[in-house]
Amino acid sequence: MDTTRMRTWAEIDLTALEHNYRTLRAMLPRECRFLGLCKANAYGHGAAVIGHTLERLGADMLAVACVSEAEELRQSGVKLPILCLGETPEELIPLLLELDVTQMVEDLETGRRLSAAAQRAGRTLRVHVKLDTGMSRLGFLWEAGREEETADEIARLCRLPGLEAEGLFTHFADADGSEAYTMAQFDRFLAARAALEERGIAFKICHCASSAAVLQYPCTYLDMVRPGLVLYGWYPAEELKGLDGPGLEPVMAVKSRVAAVRSLPKGTPVSYGRTAVLERDSRIAVVPVGYGDGYPRSLSNRMVMRVRGVECPIVGRVCMDMCMLDVTDVPGVQAGDVAVVYDGPLLERAARLAGTIPYELMCDVNPRVPRVYLPEDRAEA
Ligand SMILES: *Cc1c(COP(=O)(O)O)cnc(C)c1O
Question: Pick from 9, 28, 264, 378: most CB atoms within 10 A?
């Protein structure tokens, strides 16, 4: 694709995605299923193309946060099973059924509503039962002293007409931090699974492991893993690098194109609020990327972008649609030059400086920034 007329764009390298998928797949036992996370527009990478690519590569399932995300995948022709990880409002249950989406269910009351709606539609809704083993987010709370009641409730849910209870899952709160806490969560999960087996309920797919557990805890793989971040080439924590053998490759890079280069004398203030004043005669490049594209304003005067292979500091505040770089030390910079906004290392550094994690910066790259898929011939969605 021709990027010369784009102000700022995100390059999505599907070869890197394939490499990451195969690298992760190679860590799993043959019979373990692979669910690829496609929520939040596939972590900013473009859900339709990512969904199709994962389908072609052999993923077993995809997951999204809400029905509208599942709808986007189905409308683009994705056939794989899709798990909706968030609550679905009553009015949208018929849409779930129509799209053939598998729904997370976290309490008996919701299960009853799903069951009634499925019966009204004359269909069966596949559900995955969520357990809260220590994340304190969604799910049946598996707490000491109430195990029997909770298991009874879940068993009742599983027997509701119109539902097929295909899966049981939980989510780790600290898999990139505490092994002890993670294993305590995992033990609760196994106890719940056993209590349900005693009640004659066996789930086809039990799953726990997101990225950090996939990298570190093979014992938690069970029937399926649910990686997101690692699929896109980033690590949940610095210490987890290298656990996957050949290493993962970042799938996304964000680039922009220098709009203008101007020579400004020493003492000139730059951008809103005059937070920067030039300390020498300078060459300042204007780059058309700003917080309106998802680039954090908190990186004003702190981060760099790379032009002609050289890191150039951001001068002054990041504006909505533009920011300024000091290119005084880079000979020959001119309008039309590419500025690398994020590559692997730059995105990690930007996340640290902005006080956040790569997940957030990837999700923040907003729809104004076109996604360009590489290699081009793979991008047909
Ligand atoms: C987002 C999410 C994942 C994936 O997490 P990563 O850290 O990106 O691997 C897995 N499971 C659930 C329930 C999630 O919400």
Answer: 9
215 Cβ partners below 8 Å, 6+ apart? Answer: 230, 235, 236, 240, 243, 244
Give the separation between CA 163 and CA 124, rounded to whole angstroms: 5
d(CA 60, CA 88): 22
- Helix then strand count (H, E) for the chain reads 11, 20
- 227 Cβ inside 6 Å of ligand 1: yes
Ligand 1 centre and the CA of 172: distance in Å? 9
| pTM of this structure | 0.95
pLDDT band per the 50, 70, 90 thresholds, residue 2 = confident
How far apart (Å, rounded) are the C-alpha atoms in residues 363 and 264? 35
The bridge status of strand 125-132 relative to strand 102-105 is: parallel
Inter-residue contact 28 to 219 (CB < 8 Å): no
Residues in the chain: 381
170 lines ligand 1 (CB under 6 A): no
Ligand 1 atom nearest to 85, measured from its CA: 13
Sorted by sequence, the CB contacts under 8 Å of residue 362 that are 6+ apart come out as: 43, 44, 45, 232, 234, 252, 347
Quick one: pLDDT at residue 377?
53
Q: Which residues are catalytic?
A: 39, 272
Rounded Cα distance, 50 and 41, in Å: 9
